[in-house]
Write a structure and sequence with these properties.
The chain is α/β, with parallel strands linked by helices. The protein has one domain: 3-Layer(aba) Sandwich (Rossmann fold). The chain is built from 6 helices and 11 strands. The longest helix has 17 residues, at 65-81.
């Protein structure tokens, strides 16, 4: 994938790409970074006519549902094998809410990537921004992402992020187990069949949906962290500070129009016993000419 940015030549692999080996019972703790996102909690959002971007201010937001499965997968791994779970999100200041939720679920820390110069990013600019942020976060073994977000539904950022980082990746992951060679054995959902595959550390996995039951945030953990501090990264913290690589300037695609789906009307409620309901439903189908009477 070509982004047009300059490539830095280094004499040794960068810290985030150094592989650690683990063997049997002496397996090292797993260092995981989970990418999450804050999305609108309703589909009745407004769109900026000039930029085509969602107007997020003034609307209630929540954590993207698919990201909850990724967080639970990360926490389950560290519960079993030890390690740490850090979370990363990109958005305005209010996006700190999903980082706090993840920490109260059990994550160790949260990092917010926020800068007005990132506004209007498409999937490629978003992936590039996250890749720069990950360069600032030190070593890791595993990056977990949700399947896709409910506000964009592109399912592209995870794979693009891995390509920009130069690490192997897989999507539709339903199961993760560390192996003895310094990597993971994963199961991939391919609709009609399941694929088992191994990947070396570091790697990126996009988790499939509905693969686990995410734990709830702990009220006790929240009470124990009254002064929870979150890290914030801006463009000035990155190694590449060229503004043309970020936001709308760094986005090769532009959204022409976005709108919520039309609301269906004309609902009709039937009451009665089974026979009566069957007769009413049959008459409705006949009236709408959806079935033909004999």
């Amino acid at each position: 994938m070509q982004t047009g940015e300059p490539v830095c030549v280094q004499e040794k692999p960068p810290a985030h790409r150094r592989t650690r080996l683990c063997t049997g019972e002496n397996m090292n703790p797993i260092r995981i970074i989970t990418c999450i996102k804050q999305v609108p909690s309703t589909n009745k959002v407004e769109v900026d006519d000039e930029t085509g971007n969602l107007k997020r201010d003034g609307f209630e937001s929540k954590m993207n549902l698919n990201d909850l499965f990724a967080i639970e997968a990360a926490l389950s791994l560290t519960d079993k094998y030890g390690g740490e779970v850090r979370t990363l999100t990109m958005g305005p200041g209010q996006a700190q809410a999903v980082l706090r939720e993840a920490v109260y679920m059990g994550a160790d820390s949260g990092t917010l990537v926020s800068d007005r110069r990132f506004a209007g990013s498409d999937v490629l600019a978003t992936a590039y921004t996250l890749s720069q942020a990950l360069m600032c976060m030190g070593e890791y073994d595993l990056i977990l992402c949700g399947k896709q977000t409910t506000d964009g539904d592109t399912a592209q950022v995870g794979a693009e992020l891995a390509e920009l980082l130069g690490i192997p990746h897989a999507g539709g992951v339903t199961c993760i187990e560390p192996d003895d060679a310094g990597g993971v054995i994963i199961s991939l959902n391919r609709d009609d069949y399941i694929v088992t595959q191994s990947l070396p550390f570091p790697c990126l996995l996009c988790m499939d949906g509905d693969i686990n039951t995410p734990r709830l945030p702990s009220y006790k953990r929240k009470r124990a962290m009254p002064g929870l501090s979150l890290q914030t990264l801006t463009l000035d913290d990155f190694s590449d500070r060229d503004e043309s690589h970020y936001g709308a300037n760094g986005s090769p695609t532009q959204v022409e129009a976005i709108f919520p789906p039309p609301t269906r009307g004309g609902q009709e409620l039937f009451t009665g016993n089974g026979v009566e309901l069957g007769e009413k439903l049959a008459m409705l189908l006949f009236d709408k000419k959806m079935v033909q009477s004999r």
